[in-house]
Structures are given as C-alpha cells and as structure tokens.
Amino acid sequence: MVAPVYDHVTALIFACALFVSAVVAVPAINYANLLYVDQQQLRNVALEVLNSMLFDTGYPLNWGSSNPFNENDAVKFGLALSGSSSFYVLDPDKVSRLVVGNPSGTLDYETVRTLLGLEDYGFNIKIVPPFDVDALDKSEGSNVLFELNVTFKNGNPIPNAHVEATILYVQRQSGYFTAEMENSTNCLGRCIIGKGLPSSVTDYIVVLKTTVANLATVSSTFMEGSWSQHVMNASIVGGNITLAIPEGPGWEKGSAGTRWVESVLVVNKEGVWPIYYGSRSNKDKITWGGAYWGWSQLFPGLSYYNPLFIIFNLSVPNPRRLVLFLGPYTGASGYPVFNFGGSSALSSSGATLKLQRSVEIAGMTYIFEFLLWKET
Amino acid sequence: MYCTNYQTDDMEGIPMNKTKKTKGQMRLVEAVLASFVIIFAITFINAFAVTPLSPRYEISDLEKIGNNVLHDLDEKGLLGRFIYDENWETLTLALMVSLPPEIYFDLTVYDLDWNRVNNATIRYGDLEVFETSSYIASVTYIVPGYQADYNPRLLILQLVRR
Hints:
The complex is a heterodimer.
Chain A: H1 2-29, H2 31-55, E1 89-90, H3 92-96, H4 109-116, E2 121-128, E3 132-137, E4 143-151, E5 162-171, E6 174-184, E7 190-196, E8 203-212, E9 215-222, E10 234-237, E11 240-244, E12 259-268, E13 271-277, E14 285-286, E15 294-298, E16 309-316, E17 321-327, H5 329-332, E18 337-341, E19 352-361, E20 364-374
Parallel strand pairs in A: 1-19
Antiparallel strand pairs in A: 2-18, 2-20, 3-4, 4-7, 5-6, 5-8, 8-9, 10-11, 11-15, 12-13, 12-14, 12-16, 16-17, 19-20
Chain B: H1 23-48, H2 54-75, H3 78-84, H4 88-98, E1 103-110, E2 122-124, H5 127-132, E3 137-146, E4 149-161
Antiparallel strand pairs in B: 1-2, 1-4, 3-4
C-alpha cells in the first residue's frame, strides 16, 4: 500500500519539476525571438507614431495657429505643415506649442500622449540643429570677443564652417546699432568673432549664422553676467508676436516704473530685420500687474519671412536705459524643441527605441529625435 | 498499463501470489517521454520559425533615413548643385551633418550607362566596415538634372550603423 503512494508522490514531484523547468526553459529557449518580437513591436509603434507626427497635419489642419490657443483645439496631433507639397516640412506654429513657457499656449505631454494613443508608452521629442555651435565669451568691456567651436553631433570639429555674426547693441538711451562680421573655422573647428564697440555700450546681443555645406543654423549669444535678463517668454504664432513680462534683474516683481517697447526685430536665416518701432503710447507699455502684463501685436504676412526668433529693444527704469531681450529662448538657442515629454528612465523593460529624421522648419534643417519606450 | 508479478514461494511449498503495483513509475516514464516529445517539438518548430528578426527592420529604418536625407538635400537644391559641380567634398560634409553620427555611409554616383561619375570617395567610415558588415542598407535615388539640363544621375547610398 505504501509503495504505490510513494510512487505517485514521486511521480507528482517529478511532473511538477518538469512543468516548472519547462515554464522556465521554454521562454529561455525562445528568449532571443521574444526579444526580437518585443523590439519589433516597439519599432512598429515608433515608426507609426513618427510617421503620424511628421506626415500628418493633425486636425484642425492649422491647430497650432489658433489664437487664443486652447489645449482642446487639437483634436488630432500632427506636426506637418498644411498645404506643403514636400515631405518632412513641419509647421513652426505647431512645433512652438511643444515649447514649455510659450506665452500664447502650449500642449502638455499627457495631452499629446492621449492624442497619439500612447497611454502605455512614454516618449520624448527633441528638435535639434544638425551640428553644434558653442560660443565662449572672452569679451572685455566693450571689446566683444567670442570664440566659436563648431562640431558634429559626435563632437568632431567641423573645419571651414562659415560664420556670419550680427551684433546688435544699445548705448544708454539711444536706439540700437548693428555691426556685422564673418569668419571661417580652422581645422580644429574654431574661429574668433571680435569687434570693438563704443565704450558707452550698455547691452548687446550677437546673432550667429553658421553654415556647413550650405546647411545653416542660426543661434545667438549675448552679454554675459546677467543672462536671465536677456531672455523672455515670447512667441511667434503666425503673424502674431506675444511677449510676457519677464522676471529677473531690473524686472523684480512689483518693481515700480514703466517699461516701453522701443523696437522689435525679427531674425530669420537671411538676417536681422526691424519690424516695429514703438511710440511710447499705452499699447507699447508694460508694467507689473494691471492690464499691461505683456505686449502682443499682429504683423500680417510675418510668417512668410520664416521668423526664427525675436529681439526686443526695451526701455527699462531704475536707471532708465535700453536693454535687449531675446525670445523665445528655444528658437534663439537654435533648438526649436529642447526636450518635450517624459524620461526614458521610466521604461519598464529598460528598452528604449530612438528614431530620427531630418526635418525642415521655417526653411531650416533640423534633426527630429523621437524616443519611445514601454511603461507598463 | 498494469504490470503484475506472480512469484512462488518454494520453501513453504505453498504457492503465494505477490502483486507489486508499478503504476506510478510508468506514469513517471510517460511524463518524461511526453516532456521530451514536447521539448523536441518546440525545438524543431523553432528551427523553422520565421521570426521578425531585428536586423531586417534595422535595414528598413536605415533605408528610410537615407531616403529622407537625400530627399531633404534635393528639396533644398543642394544635391543637384553638389553633384553637377562635382563638389564631392562638400557633398560628403552635407551627408555627415545630416546623418546621425553613428551611421557610416558610402555614396556612389553613376550616369545612365552605369559609369561611375564621382572620382573622389564620398564616404564616412572605414571601407572595412562596409566589406565586413552583414547588414548594409542600400538606397537608390535619382537626380534627373540640374536647373534646365536633363542629365540624370543615379545615386547609390550604402548605410551601416556602427
């Protein structure tokens, strides 16, 4: 009686052991294939989403241009320029809705994720210039001197890159002035941009256009020491320029005094163009609080000039002087979208897929980087 | 499956039947055999299974990137200009800037009779990489002419990820 029971128990234990080892062994045998399937799934989803973003205009067709903008305006998400006959051309207004701090309205990550149907996935978008331009400020007093370092994305230097610099400067309360110069990088990818400005200069901004193999990138740099003063929340949507009151030196919250918009200049890949001169009337007035929290103006036809960023020449108090501001900062730094979305550290499996494409925004070539990972 | 042993005790002179049930052992043997059959079947099927191998998709993505970059340069009017001006150095630089840094490329330009037009190498990366890599994406792109001249050029762009 004991022996059959013993046999059955042994058989049961063996059967269980076999079952467990099969459960462990079979996926292990198939692990490589399962991994491929997983990767393929992620890749398929990433390709579908990327194509949808780059080739689809979304709905409404010009959802990024609505003013005032509401998150619910976008029923379907897509960044392609409506009416473009070419592929990979993105709408600058739609792209600007991915920039955090855009005073005329943005789309947040969760909304875009829902619109793309990526609830179980995380993603991140970057739109970056095809090569890097770093400016090292070596200015002393009114002698403006910048050492530029032009490199590929892997850090290798780019020789013979052509750099055109436009310096805008102001002197106390007189209007703005410009000076232009150019240079080419040496075999180490470096060159110097320098100019002696009048000693009465109180502020300046340097706009840099760097061209490699006829592909250009436009960025800017400015007087160091108080850089937060030089950047403000601004946006260009269609022909509408909006400027929100900044915070920082000279703009402390509640500080008294009126700021005036003296002039506005637009930067595109062709150069720097004045588009507006203020008249010190109420429409050019900015103060803390009240109705003058910012400045907004419509410039019909502005979008045809493919503006990249704006330079504001403002008169500020305590003491009364002219200062130059850039905005939006992302455009001014040459990066249309720094970092939109989540962090790939949240990936459940650790696998992250990166896809990138060359895209055109406002006549300039950029690299669109898309990262996708599974979160649940 | 029952197995019964009949034995006789000769010492007592009385025949005695002893039954030893080995049913459990046979079940065990069956289970072992069955599992061998299952594992063999899975291994056998695995060998013939067509799985979506990643490298195939890798090539597909490289082809898309290659097409995208050539298309972008063509749209800007740069591709035609570089080719017909035979400005191979600048074309190499333009491709290096436009393609991700981890991608090696080798571009060859032909005329309609398949004569090689570029007398200089348009390449980023060692030639050895292209000779040894198992997964090379190849993109064919046609530039019909430059400005008003019809003089087609065939571009073969090979891409390898490091």
